[in-house]
Amino acid sequence: MLALSCRKPARGLLKGVASLIGSGMWARTFATVQSNTQYRVFNPKTRRTPVSHDSANLTIRNGPVFTGKSFGAKSIVSGEAVFTTSLVGYPESLTDPSYRGQILVFTQPLIGNYGVPNSARDEHGLLRYFESPNIQASGVVVADYAENYSHWNAVESLSEWCARDGVPAISGVDTRAIVTYLREQGSSLARITVGEEYDADQDEAFTDPEQINLVRRVSTKSPFHVSSNGSGDLHVAVIDCGVKENILRSLVSRGASVTCFPFDYPIYKVARHFDGVFISNGPGDPTHCQDTVWALRTLMNTSQIPIMGICLGHQLVALASGAKTIKLKWGNRAHNIPALDLSTGRCHITSQNHGYAVDASTLPSDWKELFINLNDSSNEGIIHKSRPIFSTQFHPEAKGGPLDSSYLFDQYLETVRKYKNNQSKLRPVSSGLNPALKANLPGERVGVVPTVGMLNVARAKALADKAGRDSTSEAVGKAAAAA
After folding, report:
1. What single DSSP character describes residue 119?
2. Residue 197 clears pLDDT 70, i.e. is over it
3. What is residue 385's three-state secondary structure?
4. Is 414 a catalytic residue?
């Protein structure tokens, strides 16, 4: 059986949950009862910083300065300014770990009109309405912020949420002009300042997230397990590069329990205990993840186990195969991007969020393209010609967004089932974790420090210490050194 090290939940975290249960605002979250479903609902935490309504600036390095009004935390952040054309789903987008280190500009004119939902969890213990527990983007930029929200499931405003997570947000700026600039110049470094005048001498203060291993910041620091609750006997090892909750849900809801490992875990050493390996999405430049690439290459050379990758996972599979990746001028971030399936000739409308792509011209001879982007002709998927390995740049789980390509999870798990059946004939032993050990693994990420702006690592450390999360100390130290 596979033996893993795991940590007990921090005492401060347990005390925090207990205090939330006893708080008077608990009842706010029970606006509607969802029948026939087990779930837990947690009340929003005490606001970390007050909402700021001061004047705010979005400064693009060596570019224009846009002045508006703050509606989030009063802080200064720096990161890569990118834009998304998604019309809905801002709670999911802002909590997507792939946005770590980025200032997110929404092209949708009005944002915040349906507030922020509660943090209910489903029968698998996964967040229903968010892709991670905290806001991952460094900053938020919108044309118009809806101060009055209305939705049956909303428990707070977008403004309150941003302030609670220490994330600055700015409204009243011309997002059309911002997006036009970013499309012409490409994704650019930018900074949000609240209550301060722009100072050209501070241009050197811009932080470039491309120089930081962002995956290290969002990946779990030790393994955790999510059970399928008896709906199936498959067991998949997930390499967590910043995995979205709905990716895990897409696997466990189809009968595959998952055990998630840190991004740099030597997965080839334990793959024989699992029926499949999955590489998740994540932020930043894939070439920073050399340990992951080496582990995947070793796995491919020593095992026939089925492998699937999504987004950053797609790029890491390509790098492990010997291909190369490229930086896109402005990336693809939307819920309506057409991708052509080269094996069937069918076009799927897909949800995407990435700034890098696989250079298909560098694929080895035993690999081929599986999908291409019909907007810019960039690669959207690859597949091995003879082995059960494939990956996609877009998100088949799409939350928010269309579910045209969700069938890819079914195809992957079909290969996982075949592999498991073949292995049981050759080696009739049970796969997976020791049941006693599995019961003691946590059910969610361990030691991941929330983003509080790329320049506010010290504050993140103070918040983590205050919450009693001792397991985050090492991660914060590395983050501070990187920044």
Report:
1. -
2. no
3. coil
4. no
Catalytic residue among 311, 335, 380, 384: 311
Which one is catalytic: 124, 314, 384, 395?
395
Tokens 């249960």, located at residue = 21
270 pLDDT higher than 70: yes
Active site residue 241: no
pLDDT interval class at 292 (50, 70, 90)? very high
Residues in CB range of 476: below 8 A, 6 or more apart: 449, 457, 460, 461, 464
Q: Which of 92, 380, 397, 444 is catalytic?
A: 397
Task: Give Cα separations from 288 to 145, 392, 411, 479 (angstroms).
Answer: 36, 20, 30, 14
Residue carrying structure tokens 């609670």: 164
Q: Average pLDDT of 324-338? A: 92
CA distance 241 to 356: 15
What is the C-alpha separation between 264 and 475, in angstroms, rounded? 14
Express each pLDDT in 156-185 by its tens digit.
999 999 999 999 999 999 999 999 999 999
Count CB atoms within 10 A of the CB of residue 10: 18
The span from the first CA to the last CA of the chain, in angstroms, equals 40
Is 197 among the residues known to form the active site?
A: no
Contact residues for 357 (Cβ-Cβ < 8 A; gap 6+): 315, 325, 326, 328, 378, 379, 393
401-406 own/partner pairs: CB under 8 Å, 24+ apart: 401/86, 401/89, 401/335, 401/336, 401/350, 401/351, 402/335, 402/336, 402/348, 402/349, 402/350, 402/351, 404/348, 404/349, 404/350, 405/339, 405/348, 405/350, 406/250
Q: Identify whether the C-beta of residue 103 lies closer than 8 Å to the C-beta of residue 203.
A: no
What pTM value is reported for the model? 0.82
Q: What span, in angstroms and rounded, lies between the C-alpha atoms of 171 and 55?
A: 10
**CB count, 10 Å around CB of 363?**
18
Q: Are 56 and 124 in contact (CB under 8 A)?
A: no
Q: Give the tokens for residue 113.
A: 């009109």
479 CB-contact burial (10 Å; exposed 0-12 / middle 13-18 / buried 19+): buried
Sign of CA dihedral 26, 29, 34, 36: negative
pLDDT over 90 at 6, yes or no: no
Residues 103/192, Cβ–Cβ less than 8 Å: yes
Q: Report the C-alpha gap between 17 and 121 in whole angstroms.
A: 14
